[in-house]
Write a structure and sequence with these properties.
Layout (H helix, E strand, L loop, with lengths): L22 H15 L1 H22 L5 H16 L2 H14 L3 E5 L2 H14 L4 E4 L3 H5 L2 H7 L3 E4 L2 H9 L15 H12 L7 H18 L2 E4 L3 E3 L4 E6 L3 H7 L3 E7 L3 E2 L5 H13 L6 E5 L13 E7 L3 H5 L15 H5 L1 H6 L10 H12 L1 H4 L1 H4 L6 H5 L6 H14 L4 H14 L2 H21 L2 H7 L12 H10 L1
Parallel strand pairs: 1-10, 2-3, 2-4, 4-7, 5-8, 7-10
Antiparallel strand pairs: 5-6, 6-9
Helix pairs in contact: 2-12, 9-10, 16-20
Length: 483
């Protein structure tokens, strides 16, 4: 059995480590500078994502009307999120009727305690997990290992990251930043395999190691892509088949999902599954799409003896209460916004320091973890709109980043920052004063560039001020109109 997370990773801090006021921002700026300077790695990521974009575009072209499909997917999620109060109890009733057990968790600590109690009650010695970003959100692996349980990730990308001692780099492609030669060296070190650069051989090395662990594990933990209220079923979509083995072979199956994963009807999957695959990986459908309806029944040859679902809030209801940004809960975790984001391509997934990276992570993390400490993520955007254009459920991502910036300005913890916002608002609301400030700014700009006063020092550390114009726009416009 491997020792998970025993290898020293390059990531400087655990995901979602708050650390105190301003720590997350300083860490982001430091890591962004390092990642942006790693040109070989940036080039590797860009080439990988360029291939994804070609495949995605070709698949989108196969739809009769892709934009109409986006509308249908968006409507399915809108209906579900705006009727959570009805659909969640309906799902629980149907899931319980199927033989499953639902556990409600208000926050990460409660979710960890529920899972630990279930693992303990099962008398488990080993736990196997398929990809589950919700478990990353609550830091489940660390909690299980602290209690002495051996936990192994069964998804190939997650398994590689576990061996490297790193969190996922991307919530769909966890090890997209790792080259084949690095994976080969990792497997040689931990699994005793022979060096190879053949992707199929690397996959077979992991598969041979993993097959034994499926049989040995007492508990299998999975996520859930969708929860169908109509039938009480859990929908899991994957490309490797590892989630099926994780759910079907151990005696106890524990699924963990956020409350926003519920949908109303099975029919909704007819549009959501193809959209998830197309936007996420450029496939017509992922290879394995499975509906789990509860534990093994009499006469069935396989399946778990017990099936549990942990439904996590963890401040999702806080976001639900925000009518302006509620549609961020529509996210189906396809990763499309990360794949097209110029900031993600340059700074990489680790820099965000959160479970959910990229544009959608920058929108929801301040809601889930607190705006005061995480408002800097909303500033890590070019506001180019590529994320909104790529989203298969039409979340208005780049406008939500603007909303977060506005909210951060209103609740800025720094007194100097709050004072600066008030001064700017006062000046900008008075045209004559704004014109006078512009004139003074043009006169003092050369001096500011030389002296770098405290209010501008951090901003100027990575930017150059342009030369001051000789005349203001107002005077040029007056002269133009006069002419």
């Amino acid at each position: 059995m491997i020792a998970p997370h025993s290898s020293p990773g390059s990531h400087p801090a655990p995901a979602d480590d708050d650390g105190g006021h301003g720590v997350a921002k300083r860490r982001f700026l430091r890591d962004a500078a390092v990642s942006a300077g790693d040109e070989p790695r940036r080039g590797f990521i860009r080439r990988a994502l360029a291939g994804y974009e070609r495949t995605r575009d070709a698949q989108q072209a196969r739809f009769r009307d892709y934009e109409q499909a986006r509308d249908a997917a968006s409507l399915a999620k809108w209906t579900a999120v705006n009727h959570l109060d009805e659909l969640l109890p309906r799902f629980e009733a149907a899931f319980t009727a199927n033989g499953g057990v639902v556990h409600w968790a208000r926050d990460a600590a409660e979710a960890r305690r529920i899972v630990l109690d279930l693992v303990h009650a099962a008398g488990a010695k080993a736990v196997i997990k398929s990809k589950c970003m919700t478990s990353e959100e609550i830091h489940l692996n660390a909690a299980l290992e602290a209690e002495g349980y051996a936990v192994v990730e069964s998804d190939l990308g997650e398994f590689i990251q576990q061996l490297r001692g790193e969190p996922p780099y991307h919530f769909v492609f966890p090890c997209m930043h790792v080259r084949r030669d690095e994976i080969s060296a990792l497997f040689s070190e931990h699994l005793g395999s022979q060096p190879t650069s053949d992707p199929e051989q690397l996959t077979m090395i992991a598969r041979r190691h993993m097959r034994r662990l499926y049989v040995e594990a007492d508990v299998g933990i999975t996520g859930a892509n969708f929860l169908v209220a109509e039938t009480g079923q859990i929908s899991i979509t994957e490309n490797e088949g590892n989630a099926r083995l994780t759910a079907g072979l151990p005696r106890v199956h524990i699924a963990i999902a956020g409350i926003e994963k519920v949908i109303e009807r099975v029919d909704d999957l007819a549009v959501l599954l193809p959209m998830l695959a197309t936007a996420g990986t450029g496939q017509p459908l992922t290879c394995y799409n499975t509906l789990y309806a509860g534990p093994r029944r009499a006469g069935e040859c396989d399946g778990p003896e017990e099936m549990h679902l942990v439904l996590l809030d963890n401040r999702r209801t806080t976001l639900l209460a925000d009518a302006e940004q509620r549609d961020a809960l529509h996210c189906i975790r396809c990763g499309a916004c990360l794949n097209v984001c110029p900031i993600f391509k340059n700074v990489g997934g680790f820099t965000y320091g959160t479970t959910y990276q990229g544009p959608i992570g920058s929108v929801i993390t301040p809601h889930l973890r607190g705006l005061a400490e995480w408002n800097h993520l909303s500033g890590a955007s070019s506001l180019c709109g590529a994320c909104s254009a790529a989203c298969p459920v039409r979340i208005d991502i780049h406008h939500h980043l603007l909303h977060n910036r506005r909210n951060a300005a209103r609740t800025a913890p720094d007194r100097r920052e709050r004072f600066g916002h008030r001064v700017f608002a006062f000046v900008a609301a008075r045209p004559w004063l704004f014109a006078l400030a512009g004139r003074l700014g043009r006169l003092t700009l050369p001096l500011a560039k030389r002296l770098r006063p405290p209010l501008l020092r951090e901003w100027l550390s990575s930017r150059d001020l342009p030369p001051a114009p000789r005349r203001s726009f107002r005077s040029q416009w007056r002269a133009r109109r006069g002419a």
